[in-house]
């Protein structure tokens, strides 16, 4: 019988890390994925607190989720890649543009063959629940970059001053929807059409939510 693993134990086993090499941010990201329902766990009641163990069949889900989280910092977006085909295709395009022709990103060495296979798997019908994605990273970006910084954030911050589309995406990822809408107004929207639709929808929902809060305050 295979012994049960806690999430930190599973991360150490999956990515061959020792205790000193296990970043608190990596554990935090994994727990965020558990809280949003992507990673399933079993709870064991103890005298003082409940201990969480990975549910059967979740080791591969955790592995793939953390690889995707290296690029996409928002746990909700990682979950959407698993559950929403359109979001998965959109993110596959982002990954392809990031990895294409690169041997390293932000000083992190990439395996070109694994990066290509990772991109093709994400763009295809690869089963993220039962098969492990190829790992293109020599070191997980969550460990190499630290400070809760994703690979995409780092790359976008590096290039944002030169590339308006990257500046737009960075504003969106940082949650500054007003800035993103301002940037959109000065861009050729056809060049960023899918992102434009997503940002406009998110901004509209944020405005509607603010209006609803204001109504409650005035009751």
- Can you tell me the residue ranges where pLDDT is under 50 for at least 5 consecutive residues? none
Q: Strands of the biggest beta sheet: in what spatial order? A: 1-2
* Terminal residue distance: 59 Å
3D shape:
globular
The major sheet is characterized as: 2 strands, antiparallel
The helix tally amounts to: 11
Strand content: 5-15%
Integer-rounded radius of gyration: 19 Å
Structural classification: mainly alpha
Mean of residue pLDDT values: 78
Number of strands: 4
Which percent range fits the helix content? 55-70%
Encode the helix/strand succession as letters. HHEEHHHEEHHHHHH
Number of domains: 2
Offer a quick outline of the entry.
This protein has 219 residues and is mainly alpha-helical.
Describe how the helices and strands are arranged.
Layout: H1 7-15, H2 24-35, E1 41-45, E2 50-54, H3 59-69, H4 75-83, H5 85-99, E3 104-105, E4 108-109, H6 112-123, H7 141-145, H8 151-159, H9 164-173, H10 177-185, H11 193-217
Antiparallel strand pairs: 1-2, 3-4
Helix pairs in contact: 2-3, 4-5, 5-6, 8-9, 9-10, 10-11
Question: Can you tell me about this structure?
Answer:
Helix 2 (24-35) packs across helix 3 (59-69), helix 4 (75-83) packs across helix 5 and helix 10 (177-185) crosses helix 11 (193-217). This protein has 219 residues and is mainly α. It has two domains: 7-159, no CATH class; 160-219, no CATH class. Helix content is 58%, strand content 6%. A hairpin with a 2-residue loop joins strand 3 and strand 4 (108-109).
Keywords:
219 residues, mainly alpha, 2 domains, two-stranded antiparallel ribbon, two-stranded antiparallel sheet, 11 helices, 58% helix, 6% strand
